[in-house]
Amino acid sequence: MKKIALVLVASALVFSLMSCSKKKAEPAEDLSMFMEDDGLLHLEYESTNKVAKGDSCNKLKNVKIIANKDYSKPTPVDIYCDAPEIVKFAGQECVKLAPNGDGNIRVIWLFDKPIDAASISNFSFSVAGLDVPEDNTWTWNIALMYNNDITEGEHATAMYTGPMTTTGFTTTNIDLNASEGLWGNSYKPEGQFLGIQLFYGGRDPIFIKDLEVK
């Protein structure tokens, strides 16, 4: 009887260990269907832990990149925003522009000294991060901001845009003398530019590089 009891105990122990082993091997339950969709794209990028400077990943000189003030107003308005950072997206080093406390992106490359509008004729940039087809490019804009005197409203701009994808960079080259500006805000060679402002009314980040005026 003792032998039979020992055999039964041993068999039960082996069965228990096999059962535990099977449970551990089972894949984790997919809970994604229960997670709340925040509406963001959550694109993958590689952080370099570097804060972007005015000339980071672009061809501009003598500029500062500012994300915590709205320079479109007569007097710059404070806004809360993380500093733009240098990252790698789609295998390329670029500047990541994050949304601010107002729920949008408004970043300016502010020239150390305003530049004469007549001194440039070409404007170019490479961008990524949003799904913006060629026939829907008013989703976002990038503008050369005039240094004009204003008492209300916003500075005048030469405002442009371009297509964008979530998988890689799209380059847009603008002949300022020949291209029509967005919503009638076209280039005029009079006056001076105080900087270049990018605006997007959403919370997904935008990746930008090779920004240039010449």
Strand content: 35-45%
Uncertain spans, ≥5 residues at pLDDT below 50?
A: 1-26
Quaternary state reads single chain
Number of strands: 13
Give the ordered list of helices and strands.
HEEEEEEEEEEEEE
Give the mean pLDDT.
87
Cα radius of gyration in angstroms: 27 Å
Report the total helices.
1
Strand order of the largest sheet: 1-5-6-13-8-11
Separation of the first and last Cα atoms:
97 Å
Structural class: mainly beta
Share in helix: 10-25%
Reported for the largest beta sheet, the result is: 6 strands, antiparallel
Net shape = globular
Produce the secondary structure layout:
Elements: H1 2-25, E1 46-51, E2 63-66, E3 69-70, E4 77-78, E5 85-89, E6 92-97, E7 105-116, E8 122-128, E9 140-146, E10 157-160, E11 170-175, E12 192-200, E13 206-213
Antiparallel strand pairs: 1-5, 2-7, 3-4, 5-6, 6-13, 7-12, 8-11, 8-13, 9-10, 9-12
Describe this entry's structure for a reader.
The chain is mainly beta and 214 residues long. 11% of the residues lie in helices and 36% in strands. It has one helix and 13 strands; from the N terminus they run H-E-E-E-E-E-E-E-E-E-E-E-E-E. The protein has one helix at 2-25, and strands at residues 46-51, 63-66, 69-70, 77-78, 85-89, 92-97, 105-116, 122-128, 140-146, 157-160, 170-175, 192-200, 206-213. The strands form three sheets. A six-stranded antiparallel beta sheet has the order 1-5-6-13-8-11, with no helix packed on it. Strands 2-7-12-9-10 form a five-stranded antiparallel beta sheet, with no helix packed on it. Strands 3-4 form a two-stranded antiparallel ribbon. The longest helix has 24 residues, at 2-25. The termini are far apart. The model is unreliable at 1-26 (pLDDT under 50).
